[in-house]
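Attaching the record inline, Q. Sequence:
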Amino acid sequence: MKAEIDGKECDIRAVWFENGKVRMIDQRELPARIVIKDFDDHLEIAEAIRNMTTRGAPSIGATAAYGMCMAALNGKDIQEAARAIKAARPTANDLFYAVDTMLADLAKGMDPVEAADAYAQSMVDKCKAIGKYGGELIKDGMKLMTHCNAGALATVDVGTALAPMRQAWANGKRFFVYASETRPRLQGMQLTAWELNQEGIDHAIIPDGASAYYMSKGVDLIITGADRIAANGDFANKIGTFDKAIVAKHFGIPFYVAAPISTFDFNTKTGADIVIEERSETEVTMVKDIRIAPVGSPAKNPAFDVTPAELVAGFITEKGILKPSEISKVIG
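Structure, as predicted:
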């Protein structure tokens, strides 16, 4: 992704391995500043996943792969490391997929760094393919909408939901993107808008609650990412996605989901079986250590919701655009 560091434009990834350490952008610090954190312990890497130093399903997967790499380099028990890393967050399928991939690669005798680098690069390559297929959906003059952040920060590089936008923009198409703020952690406002701004893509941040209003005024296409996609096409994504899909159905707006094959979980039959992460209520009630909710009023904070497959026009994957009914035929 493009980023300005110390006044210079450079290309950078969300997570990578360098000089014996795992390095990642601390996404909690954006957009105010770019902070790179270094890790040399797999438990610290697991905590970075848990506390959202890094986030987004494919980036979580790549970070998990590097966590397994570091455990192997440090001579730790690989099975115990796998359990610790998998426990970091429950919903994103890429986390589990990456750990299991690394377990298999390490069992084959692969070099840990080469195996983790290969996993991260595979995510980038898949995102480029997603951009190629999804970019064809975007036409000149369109108004698009997205939710949360499914760009390069969430996917190592390029993005899932933002990959088609990047590709279409690079191809000379001009369009406008509504980026909903995505409460309570504001990934849409702080991360997606930052990425769109870096690319020079026309956009505006909108309150989550204004999504239906702008759809009523004219939105041509909605693209989001996903954290886990069940065998029947139901999918989990950041809380507030389900709302958008319902309203999109009402207005006849095509709703697409961009995700690599690693996000599909065929052991999960339907969305009802997806474990939804419940995060701390302080993410809702506190802003910079100041309580903004009444004392004594509790808060609920589900990190994700589940959108039924019948609301999805198609899944944009590295294998092409698939209707929910085509998933098992092409992927399973």
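The chain has a mean pLDDT of 96. Residues 112-135 form the longest helix (24 residues).

More tomorrow.
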